[in-house]
Design brief:
four-stranded antiparallel beta sheet, 7 helices, alpha+beta, extended, about 300 residues, 2 domains
């Protein structure tokens, strides 16, 4: 691995962009991982015999993907404005969401996932409610389903206590932090359903369509999506890196995967390799957890606060 001079690190040796190397020392590239494994862990005198580079590359990528799903604390953030169709297109490298927020008036408001259906497909039907088909036998679809039209037209009522709620604007009584109304909320005349006690807009992710559908009050607002990627950087192997705290684990993952898939390998060798992989993963998770005394002290200070 080539080391950078201070000039290369801070100013990219005068090239653009200047910040290209900032923070790079904590990572090792996929290319270096594969090359190091071939040199140090694979060969005639090693536990793993000579293997093709493409096999090592495949298992190295799988290890990095699993780390991104489970262990890495590298969350990507994307901010976009929600258009009039109340949709937020998921990023191209999206795998799973962490948190969605609305940025308004300089404040970040956390959004709640909607547990009720807000979007659906639909088929065209005749007067007898029979589905209509085209000449190829495919069912005809309208541009929007009735529930989508209601959401886009701001006529879809919400079970949440926000602007789309049928009870928005009603008066109630707040007693000891609990709201009481003259009409049933959450199926009863007393108390408040905390699961739906949300005044902010709501969302529901449609992973197959690759969009996030929002409630009508989100139109034109700025949305911040925090999400998890697989770390494959759009298929560009030259950009794939892994934190050095997990480097040894990646080597162990590759060895285990190659031994486990090789016919004739003794079972005890495979099990030993599996245990080594698991132990290295636990150690790396502890290292990256960043348990600092200062953070613990901030939490412990809460034990002295008064409780009514």
């Amino acid at each position: 691995m080539a080391y950078l001079t201070q000039y290369q690190y801070y100013e990219n040796a005068g090239a653009s962009p200047e910040d290209a190397n900032w923070g790079s020392y904590q990572y090792v590239s996929l290319r270096d991982i594969v090359s190091n494994y071939q040199l140090m862990y694979s060969g005639n005198n090693e536990l793993v015999n000579e293997k093709s580079r493409y096999k090592i590359l495949f298992h190295a990528k799988r290890a990095i993907q699993e780390l991104n799903y489970d262990a890495f604390k590298e969350i990507k953030v994307l901010q976009l404005n929600v258009s009039d169709d109340l949709r937020f297109i998921l990023p191209s490298d999206y795998v799973n969401w962490v948190r969605l927020s609305m940025f308004k008036d300089g404040v970040v408001f956390p959004l709640t996932e909607n547990i009720q259906v807000t979007s659906a497909q639909a088929y065209l039907q005749d007067s007898n409610n029979r589905i209509l088909f085209d000449e190829t036998g495919a069912a005809l679809k309208p541009e929007f389903s009735p529930i989508d039209e209601a959401r886009l037209n701001s006529t879809l009522k919400s079970m949440y206590l926000n602007e789309d709620s049928p009870y928005d604007g009603y008066e109630g009584w707040c007693i000891d932090g609990m709201w009481y109304f003259d009409f049933p909320v959450g199926g009863a005349f007393f108390g408040l359903n905390t699961e739906t006690a949300n005044a902010n807009p709501t969302f529901r992710i449609d992973p197959k369509s690759g969009v996030i559908n929002f409630s009508s009050v989100m139109s034109g607002e700025s949305c911040i999506l925090e999400y998890v990627s697989d770390g494959m950087e759009g298929g560009d192997d030259s950009l794939i890196t892994v934190n050095k705290l997990f480097e040894e684990y990646v080597y162990a993952y590759i060895s285990y995967s190659l031994l486990n898939s090789h016919m004739g390998t003794q079972e005890y060798v495979v099990n030993r390799s599996k245990k080594n992989k698991s132990a290295l993963l636990r150690n790396a998770k502890i290292r990256i957890s960043n348990i600092h005394p200062g953070r613990l002290l901030m939490n412990l200070r809460g034990q002295n606060k008064w409780i009514k």
